[in-house]
Each structure stands twice: as structure tokens, then as C-alpha cells.
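for the writeup, i need someone to sanity check this before i put it in the appendix. the sequnce is what the collaborator sent (i think, or maybe the updated version? ugh). structure was predicted straight from it, no edits. if anything looks off just tell me and ill rerun, i have time this weekend
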Amino acid sequence: MWDLRLPAGLFFLGLGLILTVYGLLVPAQAALVPDVNVNLYCGAAMGVFGLIMLLMAWRRSS
């Protein structure tokens, strides 16, 4: 049976990596709070969530 956590984990991990790299390379754009790099923090959170989803899928398959 196909576990749906695997594609979701890959999606969030990929999107998190893209946002994290973008947040590191591009300076923070004008936002409501100019000192917070939202792309960096949201990308890191999505990457961690994606890793958790992949670990859950891996543990279920073994």
C-alpha cells in the first residue's frame, strides 16, 4: 500500500529547502517586521516538518 506521508514529506522538504536558500541569499524584503527574515524561518520550519513526515513514512514501511 502506498503511504501518502512520503510525497507530502518530499514536498515540504523541497519547498523548505527552496525557501531556506532563498532566505539566505536574498536580503529580507520590506515586511511588517523588517528585522525578521520570514523566508528563512518558514523554510526551516517546513524542512523540519518534511523530515518528520519522511521519518514517519520510513518507520511505517519498515
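Residues 5-61 form one domain. The chain has a mean pLDDT of 84.
thx in advance!!
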